[in-house]
Design goal:
InterPro entries: DUF6469. This protein has 206 residues and is of the alpha+beta class. It has six helices and six strands, in the order αααααββββββα. The longest helix is centred in the first third of the chain and has 17 residues.
Length: 206
């Protein structure tokens, strides 16, 4: 549900950028709770870090969106949908540019949060063409030269349908499309697992 929480945006950000929220406040309320004055157990103490962690992640996402025009990106050259229900795709991306002044140098890594755009990033408003909210994606797996997964390929799970039209036979994008890097979630996921550890059953602990 990390993608759902990241997809939520406060009204103040939506009003400033024109980006509309997708996640209801009801879902946010179920996930985010106020920190109590006292703690009844170790589990409640550890779980109290949930709200600050979510707020920190939101702050980083908003900061990345504010700097969207300077974000690194890469062109997607091949797209295949792997799972209809979960919006999971396999992307093949172009080789990063060698020009040190270019921003077309994004090399996807596991844990990255990205957005897909039909144009090179210039302004966050690029993401809301046709008055639709942008869709966040989480990079689940990436290829490497020594592994069994092809280089320049990655598997990405999106929070909803993405605005890419693909030729059904060749799997090539009909129009240019780009994967734009926002933040990497690996550190946050490690921190998240610490509060979760206290609430696990003994047989689940390693």
């Amino acid at each position: 549900w990390w993608l759902e929480l990241l997809q939520w945006r406060p009204r103040r950000y939506a009003a400033r950028t024109g980006v509309r929220p997708r996640l209801s406040k009801a879902l946010l309320a179920r996930r985010v709770k106020s920190i109590p004055g006292t703690f009844t157990s170790k589990i409640t103490y550890l779980n109290s870090f949930t709200c600050p962690l979510i707020e920190e992640v939101h702050a980083d996402v908003f900061s990345a969106l504010d700097e969207y025009a300077q974000s690194n990106f890469i062109k997607t050259i091949w797209v295949e949908k792997l799972d209809d229900e979960k919006s999971i795709f396999c992307f093949e991306v172009a080789e990063p540019a060698k020009d040190p002044k270019s921003r077309e140098t994004y090399d996807p890594k596991g844990g990255d949060i990205i957005v897909v755009s039909l144009r090179k990033p210039q302004h966050v408003s690029d993401l809301i063409q046709n008055k639709a909210s942008y869709v966040l994606g989480s990079v689940l797996k990436c290829g490497d030269k020594d592994g069994d997964f092809p280089p320049n390929c990655c598997i990405v799970r999106f929070s909803a349908a993405i605005p890419i039209e693909v030729d059904p036979e060749t799997k090539l994008p009909v129009a240019p499309s780009f994967a734009v890097f926002l933040i990497n979630m690996k550190t946050y996921i490690r921190i998240w697992k610490v509060p979760s550890y206290g609430s696990r059953k003994p047989e689940q602990k390693q």
